[in-house]
């Protein structure tokens, strides 16, 4: 408190000094009344600010939660916010032959005790939320536009007065829809009562479908807003975190929060210098031609491109209990290759988390966080039209610039551990849904035949690994803090500069690569 007022005082003194220095001297008598009033006003301001600081400080330090005991939650309120405990509200699965209902006693509001002076700002990649919603910035989103997205959607999700309703249209691949909805249910548990009313359409398939060229020209209608897991530069689909953050049951990849801890421990055990000095990839090559092309770079008796490539046989793995496919144990190489499949690949975040240098084969698609990654800083770019030579150069470069290579691996894993931690994933969802809802030009209504969804209706009937992953990723209770502060949109010049820097560093690497191969060829 002392710091604030003295800071203000200094600023005030500085202002006075400047204006005094530039003012023509006048007889003091004339100036006195104005100065006195200003001083008085200023003192008053100080008192008000001080009172505000003190009161907010007292307020939070003696804060006690006021959730009613009807939900049987344990509420611990201490004398200081630092020690105020989270309340935990377990799932209430009805027993026996009763169809599962949503509990009426989960709090619908929850007071957070944020520090008014240091609300953290969200990571920079949140700024892409503005870019993804820009097509509707001028016009808003009408009901017709939303209905237009129905033809490819797997479900419609509606939030009205804090309750969530889902209208399912068709079966998604595996349990993508279930775990996506589960994720949104956890968001609701985390920030009860803070999600706005909205209606949205969600498509769980791989590739984006809303082509921007269909919505240009004089007769353009607004594009349909469609949520999915990835986009590309030709489409307008809105990107949302994929299901695997809550677990990918079919291939036994556990929820992100715990997996991140495993990977961190693994990185601590296997340091970069001690890892195999090659580029590793393991995956399913049959989903894309570019992956089959990659396999031609595998080491053979005739050639060593510094690549060690393996085919992932998920059926065999599942029979063997996924012993070979624990992603946390796949950080044994100094370089790891990321290559897209049919669209973006979920594997990306697991690869970037490794502390290894990620060799990114030129991607077409983006998910919600990767657009902010910088080549040569977070990853090493690989040409898609000359993969083998590109990989060979990357690995040779890294092995002869070990400090720089390690720094790239570290920058990526720091980004993943910090900016992509689950707290930020939830806040991204929160802000995306909020900004989206601000654009709606109609009042969301509960669709006929839609079912109320909550964590109970999703998790109680679940079984096996589905149930296990849901229990593991369950948000235990309301968050004590508010979401991070949303950063403003990029100024067009800033965004342009960012994209140019990105393109330039990729070109730079291509130049190095060319020089490397030219000099090798000269030697022969
Ligand atoms: C809490 O519960 C008490 C009864 O136990 C009731 O009188 C009171 O209005 C409730 N407060 C809120 C905020 O719901
Ligand atoms: C669980 O829900 C049932 C109704 O579905 C309710 O009777 C019961 O009190 C709830 N239990 C807890 C612990 O809140
Ligand atoms: C549940 O109870 C109803 C009637 O009480 C009965 O018709 C139904 O078969 C029961 N279902 C199961 C799965 O036991
Ligand atoms: C959307 O439009 C408003 C004004 O109409 C502007 O303030 C805001 O920056 C725009 N958002 C984006 C992402 O351009
Ligand atoms: C726009 O609409 C008008 C009248 O509906 C039609 O004649 C014209 O061909 C359309 N133009 C384009 C580019 O679709
Ligand atoms: C890393 O390993 C060392 C010992 O090998 C241990 O003391 C330390 O706690 C570990 N750190 C993490 C974050 O696991
Ligand atoms: C790549 O080469 C390694 C080493 O020879 C071998 O074990 C592996 O099966 C090969 N991968 C493929 C996809 O052929």
Question: Can you give a write-up of this model?
Answer:
With 524 residues, the protein is α/β, with parallel strands linked by helices. 40% of the residues lie in helices and 10% in strands. It has 15 helices and eleven strands. The protein has helices spanning 2-22, 28-61, 128-133, 143-148, 176-190, 256-269, 289-295, 314-319, 347-352, 387-400, 402-419, 422-439, 455-459, 464-473, 492-523; strands at residues 155-160, 163-168, 198-202, 226-228, 238-239, 276-283, 307-311, 333-338, 357-361, 380-382, 451-453. The strands form two sheets. Strands 5-4-3-1-2-11 form a six-stranded mixed β-sheet. Strands 7-6-8-9-10 form a five-stranded parallel β-sheet. The longest helix is centred in the N-terminal third of the chain and has 34 residues, at 28-61. It is globular and about 75 Å long. The relative contact order is 0.14. The structure holds 2-acetamido-2-deoxy-beta-D-glucopyranose (NAG) (7 copies). One 2-acetamido-2-deoxy-beta-D-glucopyranose binds next to strand 7.
């Amino acid at each position: 408190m002392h710091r604030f007022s003295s800071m203000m005082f200094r600023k005030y003194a500085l202002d006075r000094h400047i204006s005094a220095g530039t003012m023509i001297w006048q007889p003091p008598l004339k100036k006195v009344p104005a100065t006195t009033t200003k001083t008085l006003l200023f003192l008053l301001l100080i008192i008000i600010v001080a009172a505000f600081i003190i009161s907010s400080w007292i307020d939070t330090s003696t804060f006690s939660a006021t959730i009613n005991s009807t939900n049987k939650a344990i509420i611990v309120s201490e004398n200081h916010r630092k020690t105020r405990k989270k309340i935990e509200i377990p799932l209430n699965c009805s027993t026996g032959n009763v169809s599962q209902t949503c509990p009426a006693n989960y709090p619908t509001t929850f007071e957070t005790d944020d520090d008014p002076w240091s609300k953290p700002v969200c990571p920079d990649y949140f700024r892409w939320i503005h870019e993804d919603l820009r097509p509707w910035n001028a016009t808003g989103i009408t009901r017709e536009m939303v209905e237009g997205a129905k033809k490819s959607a797997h479900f419609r999700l509606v939030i009205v007065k804090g309750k969530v309703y889902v209208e399912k249209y068709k079966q998604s691949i595996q349990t993508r829809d279930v775990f996506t909805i589960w994720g949104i249910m956890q968001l609701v548990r985390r920030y009860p009562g803070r999600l706005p009313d909205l209606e949205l359409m969600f498509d769980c398939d791989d590739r984006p479908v809303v082509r921007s060229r269909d919505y240009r020209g004089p007769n353009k209608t607004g594009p349909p807003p469609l949520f999915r897991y990835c986009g590309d530069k030709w489409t307008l689909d809105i990107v949302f975190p994929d299901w695997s953050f809550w677990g990918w049951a079919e291939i036994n990849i556990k929820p992100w929060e715990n997996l991140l801890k495993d990977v961190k421990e693994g990185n601590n055990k296997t340091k970069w210098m001690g890892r195999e000095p090659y580029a590793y990839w393991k995956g399913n090559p049959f989903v894309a031609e570019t992956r089959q092309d990659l396999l031609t770079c595998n080491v053979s008796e005739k050639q060593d491109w510094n690549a060690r490539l393996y085919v992932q046989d998920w059926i065999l793995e599942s029979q063997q209990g996924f012993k070979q496919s624990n992603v946390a144990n796949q950080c044994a190489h100094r370089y790891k290759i990321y290559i897209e499949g049919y669209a973006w690949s979920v594997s990306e975040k697991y690869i970037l988390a490794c502390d290894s240098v990620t060799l990114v084969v030129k991607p077409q698609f983006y998910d919600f966080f990767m657009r902010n990654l910088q080549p040569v800083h977070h990853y090493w770019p690989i040409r898609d039209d000359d993969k083998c030579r590109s990989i060979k150069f990357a690995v040779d470069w890294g092995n002869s610039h070990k400090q720089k290579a390690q720094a790239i691996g570290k920058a990526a894993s720091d980004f993943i551990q910090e900016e992509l931690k689950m707290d930020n994933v939830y806040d991204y969802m929160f802000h995306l849904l909020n900004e989206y809802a601000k654009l709606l030009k109609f009042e969301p209504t509960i669709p006929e035949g839609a079912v109320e969804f909550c964590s109970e209706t999703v998790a109680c009937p679940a079984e096996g690994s589905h149930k296990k992953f849901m229990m593991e990723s369950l948000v235990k209770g309301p968050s004590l803090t508010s979401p991070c502060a949303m950063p403003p949109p990029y100024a067009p010049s800033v965004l342009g500069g960012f994209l140019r820097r990105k393109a330039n560093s990729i070109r730079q690497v291509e130049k190095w690569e060319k020089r490397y191969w030219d000099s090798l060829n000269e030697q022969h």
